[in-house]
Specification:
The protein is an all-alpha fold. The chain contains 12 helices and 2 strands; from the N terminus they run H-H-H-H-E-E-H-H-H-H-H-H-H-H.
Length: 354
């Protein structure tokens, strides 16, 4: 439990103090955000705001996790290391995307095909290692079963389908956070709530784990307490970064941050056997992603008609005249309600079956 507190505290301080230094360095090098010409005109004032702040988040999470393990003299688990690999690997792809945007002075970085290939490569390595890494009892890091609150034994998938499912989870979650990261502090604040929920979920699963407390409703999850340390580090890092990313943002996380945070959410969902519960916990990300899918699909089917004035959904409300801070706060409220409902479902299932 000390490691959880250490990781969260160190990570919070890391982004709170480190982001200020990053802002100065990025401004000095002229690494500012480029703004799409077809976006809301109010965003043009943000042109030149430092980006790639996700580097500070990634560094803070990694340093705080390993420092917490060092101080508590505990060994990192396979689950935590694989999750950090996924988190950092997707962050590296996002960094390349951000760097190309800045270097070539365009609003588009990596080509969509190149970005997709990068996500697939990281996802494949993660999936293969997570499936193949087993403990003494033969339990893998991620299971071949679909899950909502725990594994559905009837939904067993062959290894190939498990890999495909992992890739879909990673792509969906990482791109969902990426699409949400369009207003100051929106994705960061929502991420704090989701990762905070995973801290509680992992602690609860550790206290009711089949390895220590076997019973009819125990949880078959690998290394839940160590996953809670990672979740705490992510919560603290996002919370500290929000100080600088809240409106008016002094820095943006960029794809470096959004892809890595989304990948981490997918990793937690798979490792904690709450894959479909992530749809509820991350309801805001799901709604914003759905708005883009609906907009594009409706546009193509109707020959140019639109459901929303602009997608993603947050920009629709901007064009309706809502103030940016109003949209962000109300979307945070929606995200908080989604997390509360998700946690309520998680706890109610245990109570009903206990």
């Amino acid at each position: 439990m000390k490691a959880i507190l250490f990781a969260g505290g160190f990570s919070l301080l890391g982004t709170l103090l480190g982001t200020r230094i990053a802002i100065r360095l990025l401004v000095a090098k002229g690494y500012g955000q480029l703004i799409r010409d077809d976006g809301p005109t109010s965003h043009h004032t943000k042109r030149g705001t430092p980006t790639m702040g996700g580097l500070v988040v990634i560094a803070s999470v990694l340093v705080s996790y390993f420092l917490a393990k060092l101080l508590t003299q505990t060994t990192p688990s396979a689950s935590a290391l694989l999750l950090l690999f996924l988190f950092t690997g997707l962050g590296a792809i996002g960094f390349l995307d951000d760097f190309i945007k800045i270097r070539k002075q365009r609003s588009l970085g990596l080509r969509s095909k190149a970005k997709f290939i990068g996500q697939v490569v990281i996802g494949l390595v993660f999936a293969i290692l997570a499936i193949g890494t087993k403990d003494e009892s033969g339990q893998p890091v991620i299971s071949p079963h679909l899950s909502f609150l725990r594994d559905w034994e009837a939904w067993t998938m062959p290894a190939v389908l498990v890999v495909i499912w992992v890739l879909l989870m990673i792509a969906g979650a990482s791109n969902g956070v990426n699409l949400t990261d369009g207003l100051d502090g929106l994705a960061t604040g929502a991420s704090v709530m989701v990762f905070g929920a995973f801290v509680l979920i992992n602690i609860w699963q550790s206290n009711q784990n089949c390895s220590y407390y076997p019973g009819p409703k125990c949880y078959e999850v690998r290394d839940p307490l160590d996953l809670a340390v990672v979740a705490s580090a992510l919560t603290g890092a996002c919370f500290g970064f929000l100080w600088w990313n809240a409106s008016p943002a002094k820095i943006f996380m960029g794809d470096t941050g959004s892809l890595s945070l989304g990948g981490a959410m997918a990793g937690f969902a798979m490792m904690t056997r709450t894959e479909l519960l992530l749809v509820v916990l991350g309801g805001l990300f799901v709604a914003i992603t759905a708005s883009v899918i609906l907009q594009v699909g409706f546009f193509k089917l109707t020959g140019g008609r639109r459901i929303f004035r602009m997608a993603p959904l947050q920009h629709h409300f901007e064009l309706l005249g809502w103030a940016e801070i109003t949209i962000v706060v109300r979307f945070w409220i929606i995200s908080g309600l989604c997390v509360l409902v998700g946690m309520g479902i998680f706890y109610a299932e245990w109570v009903a079956g206990a």
